[in-house]
Amino acid sequence: MGKTAIVGAYNTKFGNLVKKNKETGEVTDLASIYDLINEAGRGALADAGVEGKDVDGVWVGSCAPGLFANQEHVAAMAAEIDPVGLRFKPFSRVEDACASGSVAIYNAIYALESGRARVALVLGVEKMNLLDTKGVTHALATCSYWPTEGLTGMTFPGLFAEYAKGYAQKYGIDKERLRRYLASAAALCYKNGLDNPLAHFGKGGPSDKLQLVTADAILGLPDEKNPMIADPLRLHDCSLVSDGAAAVVLMRIEDARAGGKKYSEVAGFAQVGERMAIGARPNMYELIAGKLAVKKAFAEAGVTTKDIDLAEVHDCFTINQILSTEALGFSADGKAGEDYAAGRFGRDDRPSVNLSGGLKAKGHPVGATGVSMHALLHKQLTGDPIGAAPKKAPEVAVVFNVGGSAVTNCVTVLKRGR
Fold it and tell me: What are phi and psi of 246, to 5 degrees?
C-alpha cells in the first residue's frame, strides 16, 4: 500500500556479550536484555528525531526471552527507554521464532494503517549467550514442532539438513558440489561482515583471522575446525548464537514528508505461514510458502525481481540462503549454488545479497534479526550505510526473513523515500 515510512533506525553491536569463567562456570552479563532494549530504542528515537511522548505504541519482537534470559513480559521493559514519555503507552510482545522482529513491524504497520497510531516504535531483541550450548539448542528446539521434532532430538541444523538433502536429491547435486555451493554462500557473508562494525564476526574475529572469505578457505579447514553438525551441514554452514537488539521508528508517509524526515518507504510486505511439521510438507527442496510471500509482497509494491538492488536474506543456514535466493527469483530453481560459486551477489552486483554479513557473520539474535534486516536496509536506502555498500545508490531493497524451519515467511519491499 505504500502508506508507511521508516524514519529512524538503530542496531546495537551483535555478539557473544557475556564473559564465562571456564573453571567455575560463572557467567557475567556484559550487556543485559534490558541494556540492549534501552540502547536500541533510544538510538532509533534519536535517529528519527522523535520523542517518547510522540509514540503511540511499542511492539517488541522476541523469540524466547523466558528461556534465554528468564524474562517474560519483555515488552513492558520498553517503558524504560523513556520512563516519562513512554509510560502509559501500549506495549506488545510479538513471537514468531526467528521472524519475531518482522512480524512486530507488520503489527505496527497495521496500527498505523488503521489510524489507531501515528508513530510506532518497534524493537527486536534476544539475549542468547547466558545459556550453554545445550540450553540454546533446547530453547531453539521449542520453535520446532515439538511432538515429532524437538521431542525426538531433532535440532534446527537437523531440520535444515533435510532441506539440503532434499535440494541435492532434486537437482542431482553430488556431495562435493553441494559443499562448495554452501561454502560459497558462507564466504560471501563472511567477507561482507568484515566491513560491518556491528557484526559478531567482523574485523579481528574468527572469520578474519582464518581469512574465510573464499569457498576454498572454508573447504580447506580441517574437520576439527569445521565439524559436521547435521549431515551435510557443517559448523560454518550455521549462523551464530548472538546477543543484540535493533529498533525502527515508523510513521505514515504523509507525516514523514510533512515533518521533513529522511525516510524509506514500506512499499509492500507479506507474511505467509507454512505447515509447522516438515513431514506435512509436499517437498523439502524449495521454500513453497516463501515463494508465495515474495509474489504477494512484490505485487503490492509493484516491483519485479529485476527492480531489486539489495537483499537481506535469512541465512540461518547456508542452504536457506540458497533457497531464499531462488525464492526471490535472483537465481533459477536449482541454480543459486552455482551462482554463489561463480561469485555473484557481491557488493558490486545487482542485486547485492547480505551486505551486512547476514546471520552468518553479522549474527543472529533471533528476536532481533527481522528488525535488524529492516534497519540496515533503511540505512542503505537513506544514504547512511553501515558496513559494505554498493557503488550506486540503491533504490529498492527486500527483506526475506523466516521463522522456524521456514514456517513463518516474511518479505518486505523497501524503497528510497521521495
Answer: -145, 160
Is this model's pTM higher than 0.90 or not? yes
Residue 228 above 50 pLDDT?
Answer: yes
Residues 126/366, Cβ–Cβ less than 8 Å:
yes
Tell me the C-alpha distance between 251 and 89, whole Å: 16
Q: Mind listing the pLDDT tens digit for each residue in 137-158?
A: 999 999 999 999 999 999 999 9
How many whole angstroms from its chain centre is CA 260? 29
Question: What single DSSP character describes residue 342?
Answer: T
| Per-residue pLDDT tens over the stretch 49-87 | 999 999 999 999 999 999 999 999 999 999 999 999 999
CATH H-level, domain 4-133+241-258: superfamily:
Thiolase/Chalcone synthase (3.40.47.10)
* Exposure b/e, 309-334, CB count within 10 A at least 16 = b: bbbbbbbbbbbbbbbbbbbbbbbeeb
- Domain locations along the chain: 4-133+241-258
Asked if 351 and 312 count as a contact pair (C-beta separation under 8 A), the reply is no
Asked if 118 and 255 count as a contact pair (C-beta separation under 8 A), the reply is yes
Q: How far apart are the C-alpha atoms of 342 and 340, rounded to whole Å? A: 5
Positions annotated as catalytic residues are 98, 364
How many other C-beta atoms can be found within 10 angstroms of the C-beta atom of residue 87? Answer: 11
